[in-house]
Design a protein that fits this description.
This protein is mainly α. It is 59% helix and 10% strand.
Amino acid sequence: MSDELCRHIGHQFSNATLLKIALTHRSSHEINNERLEFLGDSIVNFVIAEALYNQFPKAQEGDLSRWRASLINRDTLGNLAREFKIGRFIHLGHGELKSGGNERLSILSCTMEALIGAIYLDAGFTVVRECILRWYEPLLHSLTKASTYKDPKTQLQEYMQSQHKSLPLYTVVSVEGESHHQLFVVSCSLPMLEKETLGKGSSRRRAEQAAAELMLGMIKK
């Protein structure tokens, strides 16, 4: 069965013990995959960050962070694990097995990270990097078209420039809530057109984007 899994993920382990530990959930044995999961999480974060940095040389930090988050979250990693049929090979305790743990995204994604950590220890960074990039190639490719999307602030600015009018002004109207859970209210105004909108968001940037989107809808009617 291990040979079948190795074919699925595209890596043949030299150290079979690493593979066994990577597939062992904490409900099954005290020697389990949590440490490998910790290692794999850091590795996939870096490899995907590097790939995005190289693939989109003009992208801003906010976009890069958003794309990375979408690529390394529980659902994406869990679905990768499903593609490789990893659930069939996970060692689970009786309770987890009975409740369908081998198909649960939280367990699958953690096992995927553990496998990444195991491949790194088994064969080194170059090999695990090649594996991750191969697995993620379709997802990274799908972002190429998405990267051409322009956010509302950029669209509004370019529209105003094309009309030879002054650029929009953004002003923070209020900030509410505790420091860890704030709500920003920002106004977007076009003095020459005597128009103003208010946007709300969990950060100033998001509130500005919301206000710009409302303004775009208003002036393009």
